[in-house]
């Protein structure tokens, strides 16, 4: 896979037109341009052909320099620095307005200074664009390399040098050398495994020159060049450029480099919340960081995060990722990234479900009927239960369960003598002992969620624990599937998780920036919800599945209420029929309206009347009947008295006559 790069040609302007006069009054017919090259070198071959073609193009078009011709004089230094200096001095003695070259750095000290600035400016733009903070420069120890490392003379020297580079933290390497040793450096880097994913190699124009002049290259050399960035001058498309490319292809024997490249930019995969956050942040970095994730611990017991952090300071690990809480003791020896999750200490205890709530309200309507009062009492009972259940379901489960747990929070644990569980390897143990003064004999290390559940179910009487103290993130995950436990009290510490790096590591800063980006774009929350959220139970606001209120939850209450209503309605109808028969049957018969529709209409009118009106009417009728009865009785009594008086009078007359 070949790379296309940019070629930088540096021209040193020694003079100006018209014999150094800045105010040009007349344009010369000819300007002298000198060139000092090593004809046998790669650059010399390329430059000689390119300059000859360029001068021919300029001189053939009078519009370029307004009729002025270029007189190009080239000298072969033949790799001799001394001869290069002599030829340069000769050009300066003549009316030479510009000197191209020389190639040797010692010969052209000033030119090399300008060349370095131009080349390195382009590389600096690349470095700044990708946000790379540390860059390793490899360059020859002469004026071309501007006083750098020891000369890259042999392959062993190159190997020793690159081994030192491999031990450095930065993976961004700028290679500024000659076309001779440059490929050797890349070959050694390939051998040492420094050309793989994570490394960035930037070569100056020596590599693009090789690619342009020595194509096709052998496969071994091309393998060494894979993934390397180099520079080539960009020339906008034009008619002159197309003519030059065509002429160059003929002069160079049809040799040309191929614009093709591919990406392989693969990685090992690990699963977990912290791993996902780390990977997502790593992908946001403006450069590739090669990393090999090594598990820490024995696989059965939870390892100590503090011990892991200490191993960073000894150079065993370059970084530590995981559930590492950012606490004071650890910040003294390593640098942490921006925290990616909050996780203070909380208390988890076993709780008993749903305490009873009562709700009272005043019924505003007066109920006179006994049956109505019975139905109302039953209905109020149903409403009471429904409202109480609804209120309880909306109330925080934590608040309700606190009332039913003997553990109210960390204060209860401090004042008691009950055993306390904690996650093995967590900083919770040191905090409970050193900060809260809890005796070590009360603390029991636990490893897995299953250990948590078993110890809490057994309780202090069964050899378990009264509560477990752990970080909030773990507790949320634990409670997501175990609804018989809950957080009691408040979170009593504020801690956060972060990734640990050696002190003054630039990765800590860059990873912090990446974590902030994850937080801003919502990816951090999505990763959190993926691993730490569940649909079953949560620590505070979840209703238990078995206790979730539904319509069928109250079917018994509704059945009782319905039966009472139907029974009351039946009794009421019977009473209405009896009352109607007692009070209205005579009226209906006396009125002569014995049709069924009339009787039904009269009955409905009767039912619609209030009970008080019915009773009042009943009393009036009873009084009327009683009055009529008393009048009849008076008349009957008066008649009897009259007959009796008459009888007595007749008897008296009879007795008188006899006498």
From TrEMBL:
CDD domains: GluR_Plant. PANTHER family: IONOTROPIC GLUTAMATE RECEPTOR. Residues 614-659 are annotated as: Disordered. One of its GO terms (molecular function) is ligand-gated monoatomic ion channel activity. Residues 614-627 have a biased composition (Basic and acidic residues). InterPro entries: ANF_lig-bd_rcpt, Ionotropic_Glu_rcpt, Iontro_rcpt_C, Peripla_BP_I. SUPFAM superfamilies: Periplasmic binding protein-like I, Periplasmic binding protein-like II. Its main location: membrane. It is found in: Membrane. It is a multi-pass membrane protein. Residues 262-534 form the Ionotropic glutamate receptor C-terminal domain. The chain crosses the membrane at residues 376-400, 554-575. This is Ionotropic glutamate receptor C-terminal domain-containing protein.
